[in-house]
Amino acid sequence: MDIRHYFVEKGTGKAFILLHGNGADSFFFKGQIDEFARLYHVYALDTRGHGRTPRGKMPFTIRQFANDLLGFMDEQRIGKAHLLGFSDGANTAMVFAIRHPERVDRLVLNGANLNADGVKRSTQIPIELGYRIARHFSGKSESARRNAEMLGLMVNEPDVSPSELAGIRAKTLVIAGTRDMIREAHTRMIAESIPDAKLVFVRGNHFIANRHPAEFNRVVLEFLRD
Fold it and tell me: Which of 52, 159, 196, 218 is most exposed, with minimal Cβ within 10 Å?
């Protein structure tokens, strides 16, 4: 692997890996790490090209992030783990669980989407406009190139079909905000496509883990203990 992840590690017991969303880093889970570490061995990663983890030279895609996660687990000698992903982190966890079902114990998908159509147009249109502008200037500006790469994740990724979700064997919790930027029908479709998945909506927007940690943590821990 061409990168080494920066990560926050806390607690003992079953491995529990947290994956943040686009443009963020492991600090997004400031309201979860201590709470989850009371029961689990928590690893909160900075994804490739985010936070303190270098960009490296490999493709900047959700599938590459899933490959990176496999490398991280092998490096840390984690045979099987609970995974919790938020937004693009949820998409990474979802792809990983499809590709490596034997490495996932329980799966929590917070604010996941299969493609750009799953995002409300009021949110997606500015993203797509920003992506086009950034791409136009990407040959002249490093910051524009970087911005195009980040926005590209939300325009072109993860491109997963509902039928692929049938390959997820982990017991799964699909969780989203009642006012999420992901369309409710899309979130419900994801839950319905994963065998025996549990679906929960928490009052709030896309950032429920960060803004309503007590309720979010309660739902997640209840699911993991069930």
Answer: 196
